[in-house]
Write a structure and sequence with these properties.
Helices cover about 55% and strands about 5% of the residues. It is mainly alpha-helical. Helix 2 (about 65-110) crosses helix 3.
Amino acid sequence: MTNLPEPIRVVQLPDGTYTYADHLPALHQPPTGPVPQVVHQHIHQAPPDRTVQRIALGSGIGAGTVAAGVYFGPLLVGALTAIAANLALLAFLATVLAWGVVTVVKSIGGPDGKAAANTLSRTRRKGK
């Protein structure tokens, strides 16, 4: 029984096929040492420009003031934009309502309505 040859090992290659271990080239030998770790590298956008904060800190104000400006600056811009949009909508609504009132007064009011509309238009012309 000692005359039997050593059994040949069968290994699976990375592409999924099987082959005998004695036919493998040196590059395909299974690793004998520790398995290397996979490195996941995350690539992000560039960091925000901090020139204003650096100038502010260099001028002597504290870091808390700079942090407050960084935090509340965009909030203030957003709030002012929302207020401006609301005011523009209200101005448009007032214009449409005034036009509607004048149109209704002219069409329903008869001679008195037309006279009132003419008086109103004369008053506006004198104001300019």
